[in-house]
Write a structure and sequence with these properties.
- It is built from 20 helices and 24 strands.
- The chain is α/β, with parallel strands linked by helices.
- It folds into 3 domains: 294 residues, Response regulator (Rossmann fold, 3-Layer(aba) Sandwich); 116 residues, no CATH class; 268 residues, Rhodopsin 7-helix transmembrane proteins (Rhopdopsin 7-helix transmembrane proteins, Up-down Bundle).
- The strands form 8 sheets. Strands 1-5-2-6-7-8 form a 6-stranded mixed β-sheet, with helices on both faces. A 5-stranded mixed β-sheet has the order 9-10-13-14-15.
C-alpha cells in the first residue's frame, strides 16, 4: 500500500531539514554566483539557471508573467556525486496526474482572465510553471529561476531574449519548500501565494513578509465547536491519506468527523484540459515540457528524441493523434476540486492586485510623492501593497481576502467517514465551517447525513450532562470537562431555538420571547381601543353627548320663537350647541390606534372646538353685563358695542387666535405617532407624542384664560335681577369646566400610554357635559316641563318682583 502525504507536519524532520537547508543554500548560492560572475553570455540569468537545473516546465508569453510551482512528480533520483565530472541534476520520477492538473488549472485561470474584458483590460497575462518534484532542492532551484528575472529581463524561448519579469508566484504546495523559498524570496518582496502550504509558522510576517495563501492555516483546524462523546475529529491531512479509507480501519474510524479543503466546481476546466496536446502546440519550447511528460505518461508512448532525464518513457512514438477522452485517467475528474480551487483563487488574487494597481490615478497613488506603479517599472513590493488589500468574491460566492499575516479567510468542508452496507467506504461532505470577516465563525451541518459509528446509529451523548433544550443555554461548570454544563434559562427578551445552544440571542425590537423562550413572538400592542371596555364606555359617552346636543338643538330650533329662547341670545345659544357637539365628537379622535392624521387632528380639533365654546360663553356673559348696564339711566349707548355683528366677530376673532396657535404648532413640531417600549418590555404602547410641549401648553393655556375670564365676569353678574340670571348658570358651568381641567393636568402627566388618552377624553367629556347640563338643562326643563313659565309676561313678571 502506497501512502502519499501532502499537507502539514508530514515532511518536517527539523534537525535534518535545517542541516540540508543550509547546505543547499550554500550550494545554490555558489551556482547562482558563478552564473553572474562568469564571462559574459547573451543568455539571461533565468535561462542559465533553468538550463543549469534541468527543470521541467511550461510557459505562455504575456505582458505580465506569473510564476508557478507545482508537484508534477512525487519522487526523484539523485545522481552519484563523484566530482570527477560535472554533476548531473536530480531526475524526477513518478508522474503525479493530480499535480499536473493543478498546473493546468493555473493555465486555465490565466486564459480565463485574458478573455475577461473587465479584469486587466489591454493587459495579457503569461506564466512560467515549474515542477518541484516534491523536493526541496529542485523546488528551490525553480524558485531561483523565477526570481532571477527580477534584475534582468528574460524569455522562455531557447534564445532567452528580453521578456517581462515574474511579478508573483503561485505555490509552492509543500510547507517545507514554502518555508525555504519564502525565506529567500522574501528578501526581494516577491509575492508568493501558496494554494496548499498550511503550516501555521508561515503566518509569521517578520520571517515571511511576502507570503500569502488561499488555503487556511493549520491554526484554524482545531473545527472550536462543542462535539461531545467519544468521536474522532480529524484534520484535513486524514482525508488525503487514502490508506485510512479502507474497510480495515472503519471499525475504528467509521463515523469520523473531519475537515477537508473546501471544494468547488470550475466551469470550463474540463474542456480546457481536453485541449492539451503538446504535439499541436508550437509555443512550448521547453526541453522538459510537463505537457510532453504528461502525454507520454498517459499514453505510454515516447517523444523523439526522449527528453533528457526522462526514464519512464517507453513504447511507441507519440503521434499527437491520441485522445484523452478514450483513456481512463483521474486527470479529467473535475467534479469536486480542492487544491485546484485554491489555485484558481490565487491566480485571481494576483490578477485583481494587478488590476487595482493599474487603476491608480497619477498624483493620487499610495507610494512616495503619491506616485503610482507601472508595468514598465514594476517593483515586487509595489504589487505586495495591492495584494494585501485584495478583497473579491469568486463566481461561486466565496470571499477572498488576506489578513495581516497573509492568511486567507478559512473555509473547510466538514467530512464524515461513511461505511456503506455493501462494505465499501466513502468520505462524504456533511457541512461547511468558515470564518467571515463580518459574521465570525459559522458551522453548518446536515445532521441527517452524518454516519455515527455506534450501535444505536445515533449521535453520541454527553457522559456528564444531558443536552440543553431550546429556551436555555449551556454554561460550563468551572473546573470540569467541557461536557459538564448547566442549562441556564434565557433571560426575558432572549431565546435559543436549538438544543445545546451556547448563547441566547436577543429578539428583534418589535418582538419578545415566548413563555418557553424558544422563539420570538410579536410584542403585544396597547392603545385606547374601541374594542376594550374603557374605549367602549368613552365612545358611548361621546356619542350620547353628541345626541343630547342634537336633541337640545332640535328643541331650541322648534321653540326658537318662544321668549325663553329669544331672551337667552338664541344665535349664540345655537352656536354654543354646535361647538359642544364638536367637543363631544373630537373625543373620538383619541380612541383607536394612533395615526399621523389623528395625532395631528385630535389636539387641533379639541383646542378649536373648546375655544369656540368658551368664546360663545364669554360673549354671552359680556352681553348680560351690557344689557344690565343699558337698563340703567344713561346706559343705553353700551348696547351698540354688542350687536349681532360684534358678537359674531368677537367669537370668530377669539377662535381664530386658537387656530393660529394650532397651525404654528403643527408646522413647527407636529404631533406624531410613536411606538413606546419604555413602559413595558413585552408591550409596544402606541401613543401620540405632542411634538412641542410649548405648543400644547399654549393651546391649553389659551382655553384656560378664556374660561377664567368667563368665570370672573359671570361671577360678577351672578346677583343681577332674575331677568338676567343666566349669569348664575354660566358661573356654575365655568366652575365645573375649570375644576375639570385643573385636575386634568396632574392626572395626564402621571398616566402612561393609553391611560393618558383616556384621561384627556374623560376631561373633554366631563367639561362638555358640565357645560351642556349647566347651561341648557334648566332651559330645556322650562321649555318642555313648565311651558306656562315660557311666556313674556312670566319672564318680565319675575323681573318686577325683585
Amino acid at each position: 500500500m502506497k501512502i502519499r502525504y501532502r499537507g502539514e507536519g508530514r515532511r518536517i524532520v527539523m534537525g535534518r531539514f535545517i542541516i540540508k537547508y543550509l547546505l543547499l543554500c550554500v550550494y545554490l548560492f555558489l551556482i547562482y554566483s558563478s552564473l553572474f560572475f562568469s564571462e559574459s553570455s547573451p543568455l539571461s540569468p533565468s535561462c542559465k539557471l533553468r538550463r543549469r537545473f534541468n527543470l521541467n516546465g511550461m510557459h505562455k508569453a504575456g505582458d505580465v508573467i506569473l510564476g508557478g510551482l507545482f508537484e508534477v512528480h512525487y519522487s526523484f533520483i539523485f545522481p552519484e556525486l563523484t566530482f570527477t565530472s560535472e554533476p548531473h541534476q536530480p531526475n524526477c520520477q513518478g508522474f503525479d496526474t493530480p499535480g499536473f492538473r493543478h498546473a493546468m488549472t493555473m493555465a486555465f485561470a490565466v486564459d480565463e482572465i485574458n478573455k475577461n474584458t473587465n479584469l486587466l483590460p489591454n493587459v495579457t497575462l503569461g506564466y512560467i510553471l515549474y515542477d518541484n518534484c516534491a523536493t526541496l532542492g529542485i523546488g528551490f532551484s525553480a524558485a531561483l529561476s523565477l526570481a532571477s528575472g527580477q534584475e534582468e529581463q528574460f524569455l522562455l524561448q531557447e534564445n532567452c531574449l528580453g521578456n517581462p519579469p515574474v511579478v508573483g508566484i503561485v505555490g509552492d504546495p509543500i510547507s517545507t519548500l514554502s518555508i525555504a523559498i519564502s525565506s529567500v524570496l522574501g528578501l526581494f518582496k516577491l509575492p508568493i501565494v501558496s494554494y496548499f502550504a498550511t503550516c501555521s509558522c508561515l503566518s509569521d510576517r517578520q520571517r515571511f513578509p511576502s507570503f500569502f495563501r488561499t488555503i487556511p492555516s493549520d491554526a484554524f483546524q482545531v473545527v472550536k465547536q462543542n462535539v461531545t462523546g467519544l468521536q474522532w475529529i480529524a484534520s484535513e491531512a486524514w482525508t488525503l491519506v487514502d490508506g485510512l479509507h479502507t474497510p480495515a480501519f472503519m471499525p475504528y474510524l467509521g463515523g469520523t468527523l473531519g475537515i477537508a479543503i473546501h471544494r468547488g466546481k470550475i466551469p470550463g476546466l474540463r474542456d480546457f484540459l481536453l485541449r492539451i496536446n503538446p504535439h499541436q502546440q508550437q509555443n512550448n519550447s521547453y526541453e522538459n515540457s510537463m505537457e510532453k511528460q504528461f502525454w507520454e505518461y498517459t499514453f505510454h508512448c515516447r517523444s523523439s528524441p526522449p527528453p533528457a532525464g526522462w526514464v519512464e518513457a517507453g513504447g511507441a512514438l507519440c503521434t499527437g493523434q491520441e485522445d484523452l477522452e478514450n483513456v481512463e485517467t483521474e486527470f479529467l475528474n473535475v467534479s469536486e476540486l480542492g487544491p485546484e480551487y485554491n489555485i484558481y483563487k490565487a491566480v485571481y488574487a494576483l490578477a485583481y492586485a494587478l488590476d487595482d494597481m493599474l487603476q491608480c490615478e497619477p498624483g493620487r497613488g499610495p507610494f512616495s510623492g503619491h506616485s503610482c506603479a507601472s508595468l514598465q517599472r514594476l517593483e515586487p513590493w509595489q504589487l505586495m501593497y495591492y495584494l494585501e488589500k485584495v478583497n473579491f468574491t469568486t463566481p461561486f460566492g466565496d470571499q477572498v481576502s488576506f489578513d495581516e499575516n497573509g492568511d486567507a479567510l478559512p473555509i473547510y468542508d466538514v467530512m464524515n467517514w461513511l461505511w456503506l452496507p455493501d462494505g465499501r467506504t466513502e468520505v462524504q461532505s456533511v457541512g461547511v465551517v468558515k470564518k467571515s470577516a463580518y459574521n465570525g465563525e459559522e458551522l453548518t451541518l446536515d445532521e441527517d447525513k452524518i454516519f455515527w459509528n455506534f450501535d444505536s446509529k445515533q449521535p453520541p451523548r454527553s457522559v456528564c450532562s444531558e443536552g440543553c433544550p431550546p429556551g436555555t443555554r449551556m454554561a460550563r461548570k468551572r473546573g470540569q470537562p467541557v461536557c459538564c454544563f448547566d442549562c441556564i434559562p434565557c433571560s426575558e427578551g432572549m431565546i435559543s431555538n436549538e438544543t445545546d445552544s451556547m448563547e441566547c440571542i436577543s429578539c428583534p425590537e418589535d418582538f419578545w420571547s415566548s413563555p418557553q423562550h424558544d422563539h420570538c413572538v410579536p410584542k403585544k400592542t396597547e392603545f385606547l381601543s374601541y374594542h376594550e371596555p374603557l374605549g367602549i364606555c368613552l365612545t358611548t359617552a361621546s356619542l350620547l353627548g353628541t345626541l343630547i346636543c342634537a336633541a337640545v338643538l332640535v328643541i331650541f330650533t322648534y321653540h326658537r320663537s318662544t321668549p325663553m329662547v329669544r331672551a337667552n341670545n338664541s344665535e349664540l345659544s345655537f352656536l354654543l350647541l354646535v361647538s359642544l357637539k364638536l367637543c363631544f365628537l373630537c373625543s373620538l379622535l383619541f380612541i383607536g390606534r394612533p395615526r399621523l392624521w389623528t395625532c395631528q387632528l385630535r389636539h387641533a380639533a379639541f383646542g378649536i372646538s373648546f375655544v369656540l365654546c368658551v368664546s360663545c360663553i364669554l360673549v354671552k356673559t359680556m352681553v348680560v353685563l351690557a344689557v344690565f348696564k343699558a337698563s340703567k339711566p344713561g346706559g343705553g349707548t353700551s348696547l351698540k358695542w354688542f350687536g349681532a355683528m360684534q358678537q359674531r366677530g368677537t367669537v370668530m376673532f377669539l377662535t381664530f387666535i386658537q387656530a393660529a396657535i394650532c397651525t404654528a404648532w403643527l408646522v413647527s413640531s407636529s404631533p406624531a405617532p410613536h411606538k413606546n417600549t419604555q413602559y413595558h418590555n413585552d408591550k409596544i404602547v402606541y401613543e401620540c407624542v405632542v411634538g412641542s410641549t410649548v405648543g400644547f401648553a399654549v393651546l391649553l393655556g389659551y382655553i384656560g384664560l378664556l374660561a377664567i375670564l368667563s368665570f370672573l365676569l359671570a361671577f360678577l353678574a351672578r346677583n343681577l335681577p332674575d331677568n338676567f340670571n343666566e349669569a348664575k348658570l354660566i358661573t356654575f358651568s365655568m366652575l365645573i369646566f375649570c375644576a375639570v381641567w385643573v385636575a386634568f393636568v396632574p392626572a395626564y402627566v402621571n398616566s402612561p400610554g393609553k391611560y393618558a388618552d383616556a384621561v384627556e377624553v374623560f376631561a373633554i367629556l366631563a367639561s362638555s357635559f358640565g357645560l351642556l347640563v349647566a347651561l341648557f338643562g334648566p332651559k330645556c326643563y322650562i321649555i318642555l316641563m313648565r311651558p306656562e313659565r315660557n311666556t313674556k309676561k312670566a319672564i318680565m313678571g319675575r323681573g318686577t318682583k325683585l
